[in-house]
Amino acid sequence: MKRIFSGVQPTGNLHLGNYLGAIRNFVGLQADYDCIYCVVDMHAITVWQDPKELVANTREVTAAYLAAGIDPKKSIIFNQSQVSAHAELAWIFNCVARLGWMNRMTQFKEKAGKHRENASVGLYAYPTLMAADILAYKASHVPVGEDQKQHLELTRDIAIKFNGDFGREVFPVTEPLIFGSATRVMSLRDGSKKMSKSDPSDYSRITMTDDADAVAKKIRKATSDSELIPGPEILGDDGKPDEELRRARPEAFNLLTIYAALADVELGEVLRDFEGKGFADFKKALTEVAVENLGPIGSEMKRLTDAPDHVDDVLRDGAARAREVAEPVLREVYDVVGFLRP
Ligand code: TYM
User: Which end of the chain has the least Cβ crowding within 10 Å, N or C?
Assistant: First the structure.
């Protein structure tokens, strides 16, 4: 069976982009793949995390996985720091990846900002740890949102170079799975920025635990425009809006795309239903579909995190199963590299 690996950072504020771009897709893949879903706490500490919050956020991401419909009996759910193979393999990949490759990573540049000298070494090495996450399980496919594309290309480069350097096909060349209608959900305040956990404005994102009132308020305040909603004739053969038009109205198309993703319909259908209407009407319908989808997930997350024993059991059991898969891979790598284990 083909193997899936993916991860979400426990850095708080899990949002609609994480859900539509990643977590919701994880659920459906369970039918056809052997799936491993990780809460990447070691990635989280590449920027400062309060230890108590890190614990709470680790449970929150686990609860989101469970509440969204990932079955812990079928799939493996665990947190990264419980399986030491990730850190061990990451070191080897630090010695495989080239500085030139790392220097091209746009996420590091964005996250480190202007004061690059003050960024942690971990933030810089983040992509080699990510490659280790995936390749410790020889995963064939990785479902992610669009923003992770470059990191997955680096993972492929590392696998190819490792195999080439040692003359052995140890690692698969992993395929990214970027699918669904919302691979890049944008901020509700500014259509040129992606929705993110770290945006200082709470109004920029809908979180997975927002209640109906918060969702309604955020959608009401979301930036849109005073033009009417266009008809489906603006879509190209690929079902996407004309790029120039989309660029001219980024916030409008973001809201329309979010609606399509939540209602699980094509964008064309949304445009057919709302053609000629203004955003005031549309926002009411969007609120309804958002609350209908996220409401049950948010309350289940709350139930699971209020009494976290079940969540902790899932992580403990998942880590034991993850180790069973990763340890033989690590031993194979150590042998190939020439690490003596007398
Ligand atoms: P993270 O925690 O930032 O995000 C988790 C997942 O959500 C997707 N995502 C989005 N999708 C659509 N629109 C958005 N605005 C949006 N924001 C986030 C991300 O693409 C991701 O799929 N580096 C990863 C975590 C990671 C990982 C891995 C992923 C660590 N190791 C191995 C896959 C495989 C990250 O920071 O995700």
Answer: C
Which residue numbers are catalytic?
111, 194, 197
Predicted-complex ipTM score: 0.99
CA dihedral 218, 223, 229, 232 (to 10 degrees): -90
- Structure tokens of 161? 């170079």
- How confident is the model at residue 242, as a pLDDT? 86
- Residue 116 CA, distance from chain mean position: 25
Chain segment 275-288, per-residue pLDDT in tens:
999 999 999 999 99
Whole-number Å distance between alpha carbons of 87 and 84: 6
User: Does one domain contain both 222 and 149?
Assistant: no
Q: Are residues 316 and 299 in the same domain?
A: no
Give the global pTM. Answer: 0.97
- Is the C-beta atom of 136 inside 6 A of ligand 1? no
Instruction: Determine, yes or no, domain membership for 327.
Output: yes
Parent domain of 270: 202-304
The CATH number covering residue 221 comes to: 1.10.240.10
d(CA 340, CA 245): 61
Helices (H), ranges, 76-210: 85-94, 99-103, 106-112, 121-135, 149-166
| CATH number of domain containing 112 | 3.40.50.620
In 299-330, which positions are buried (b, 16+ CB within 10 angstroms) versus exposed (e)? ebbeebbeebeebeebbeebbebbbebbeebb
Whether residues 174 and 141 share a domain: the answer is yes
9 lines ligand 1 (CB under 6 A): yes
307 C-alpha vs ligand 1 centroid, how far in Å?
27
114 lies in the same domain as 9 = yes
Residue 284 to residues 3, 23, 93, 118, Cα–Cα distance (Å): 40, 25, 49, 44
Give, using CA atoms, the residue closest to atom 22 of ligand 1: 144
* Rounded (10°) angle between helices 85-94 and 309-337: 40
The pLDDT, as a whole number, for residue 1 is: 66
- Distance (angstroms) between ligand 1 centre and the Cα of 8 equals 6
Tell how far the Cα of 148 is from the centroid of ligand 1, in angstroms. Answer: 6
Domain count, the chain: 2
